[in-house]
Amino acid sequence: MNKYRSHNCNELRRKDVGQKVLLSGWINKKRDHGNLLFLDLRDNYGITQCIINKDSSSFKELEKIQLETVIKIEGKVIDRSKETFNKEIPTGEIEVSINNFSTLGTCKELPLPVFSDQEYSEEIRLKYRFLDLRRKKIHENITLRSKVISFIRSEMGKYGFLEFQTPILTSSSPEGARDFLVPSRLNPGKFYALPQAPQQFKQLIMVSGFDKYFQIAPCFRDEDARADRSPGEFYQLDLEMSFVEQEDVFNVVENLLINTFKKFSNKKLVSEKFPRISFAESMLKYGTDKPDLRNPLIINDITEIFFREDVSFEIFKKLVKSGSKVRCIKTNDTKNKPRSFFDGIDKWAKEQGASGLAYFTFEEDDKIFAKGPVGKFFSEEALKEIMKITHAEVGDSIFLACDKQGNLEKITSMAREKIGRNLNLIDENTFAFCWIVDYPMFELNDQTKKIQFSHNPFSMPQGEKDKINFGNPLEILAYQYDIVCNGIELSSGAIRNHIPELMYKLFAIAGYDRKQVDEKFSGMINALSFGAPPHGGIAPGIDRIVMLLANEKNIREVTMFPMNQNAQDLMMNAPSEISDYQLKELNLSLKSKK
RNA sequence: GGGGGUGUAGCUCAGUUGGUUAGAGCGAUCGCCUGUCACGCGAUAGGUCGAGGGUUCGAGUCCCUUCACUCCCGCCA
Q1: Could you tell me which of A478, A468, A476 has the C-alpha nearest to residue A501?
Q2: CB–CB of A485/A548 below 8 Å?
Q3: What is the pTM of this model?
Q4: Number of C-alpha atoms within 13 angstroms, CB side, residue A123?
Q5: Which single residue of A2, A156, A364, A457 could bond A161 by disulfide (Cβ 3.0 to 4.6 Å)?
Q6: Are A94 and A79 in contact (CB under 8 A)?
Q7: Protein CA at A113 to nucleotide C1' at B13, angstroms
Q8: Does A594 contact strand B, using a CB cutoff of 7 Å?
Q9: From the CA of A112, how many Å to the C1' of B21?
Q10: Chain A 491-550 contacts with nucleic strand B (CB below 7 A)
Q11: Do A329 and A298 contact (CB within 8 A), yes or no?
Q12: What span, in angstroms and rounded, lies between the C-alpha atoms of A64 and A73?
């Protein structure tokens, strides 16, 4: 028999009444009636109410004992009378009468209460993460994370994928995010990089003939944090398949995600086939490549209206002439919304750094007219044209903004979300997935005006390889795709370019000559020259999947030991200074601190 | 690097127009209480009002600087 417990704290029921039991756990809560003490004992599994009265020799000691002390109790399971059942917990029909107890782990005065629904500052939670993790909600989140990961593992096994580990110490890559670097002792002056993703390795695994690979892979990127982005490290379900086209990857991942979300959440899936939206369409209709499809609002381009003679909105007309565009969001049946609703949105837009959002509402007496501060600038004909483009009816309103395309996309995208929330159009009880497909291979860097890879340089360009229009690289699309759910980018992937000659051509466009490519990507290029299968894959973000399933807005709520926004671990005191000896061994010297 | 929010007791927060000795709940300590499950009741301790500077007869409150945490922009192939 186990020394510490015969049962866990969620096991005992009425059928156990009369049994002598051993329970161990934390003191969750005490209720002291002077001559009678109730004590809730908690472990990973649940809570059992224990009871002791003043006749017992242990009574005085238990009365004084600190919450969160770890104790072992020896006692007898007894029946509760019906009026005293606790329906909140599964063990609520019994209690354990304490015969004696021993302390297994003492507890100092707590810096934060464990048994409480209060919220605490991140600082105190992260510093005392081991206490924070005892609390119900986050304890359940972390447990959920474990279950989701093991479910995914077993599913991937069923689909015939093999799980492999890839190196953590690898080489720095010129593209992408900032690397975390690790100095090499044996190779003075040289550095390893932690992998931003096992990108090259997974392709090499395909070249090695393993056909289907996956890994719950740690990824390291030295970029600034966001609510849905941990600083430093995160996990991806990294997977890669040989002899596949985009469709084959989609099938596997759609199945996996749908099974996972059905199993671990009660929220409705808007559609079991993920709709596919091209990058270009998404940027136009939603202003972003991660649209929240729960939001029914759509953005329309109405730039052409501002070339008309019968539109006198001179500010916009002038901007349009110099290359700006006008885009708008239509809201249904908002004619009775108070002025404050419209002005609130306009004010909000200005706070976001835009020049505001103009608005008007379609109304009708003997003819169509627009009500609102800028309504007078539009003729009836122009209004009818806008109604046609936006599928608007009388009573609907239009919010419009004018700017250069990039800024315009940003503000209309944010406005779509803001207006959708204000009008309560977003159903929080659903998951709306979609594929974003047909990403451009290249993009123009705004600052340098040079052409660069827009996503992954190893993606396969679309089209027959001899017919691709290399003269107009910005037109080249890639077999590059993202999964988005509720406005959160869950994963991105691609069919890879396994043809070295084609890869040299593409890298040349991005400004790398053959020699540079050979140097920077020697492992890859070399491998692709020795019989590489066509292959492709994707890498869904585990943390974000769990975040959605746990209904959390912040990734730290599903991460066991996260760092804070400044990439510090307040509990372990990382990063920390190192000794002169360590520096010397690594051939490093520090610039003097300012 | 930039913008917003927050910072008052161990924890969560209140604090009026600048005005006497800065409050509450939880927690801690002490006492009372035999059916609670957010037990109840009474008492006690606990404060560099994030830090520094300024304005003022007087600053938790106003101004400036700065620090920490957080959200966002930039960044994240």
Answers
A1: A468
A2: yes
A3: 0.93
A4: 0
A5: A156
A6: yes
A7: 15
A8: no
A9: 30
A10: 492
A11: yes
A12: 16
